Amino acid sequence: MAKSKAPAQTFEEARYLRKLASTKARVRVKLKSGEEVEGYIEYWDQAFVRVTREPEAPNLFIFKHDISYIAELSE
HSE of 45 in the Cβ direction (CA atoms, 13 Å)? Predict the structure, then answer.
C-alpha cells in the first residue's frame, strides 16, 4: 500500500491570521533576533504581517521569514 504525501499547503496559517485580525486579538511577535513586539495583526500577505501597536508606537511591517512565532496574549 502506497503512503500519500502530506499536502504542500494546508491554509491553516491564513485561517489563523484571519482569526487574529478579525478579532483584533493582542499578540506577541517574537523575532528570530530575539526582539519581541506586541500589538494586533491588521493585515498580512504571503511575505509579511502588519502589526498595529499602541498610539505612541509605530506600526510595523514584519517579514514572515524574520518571525519565530506569534502568540496570542490573554486579556
Answer: 2
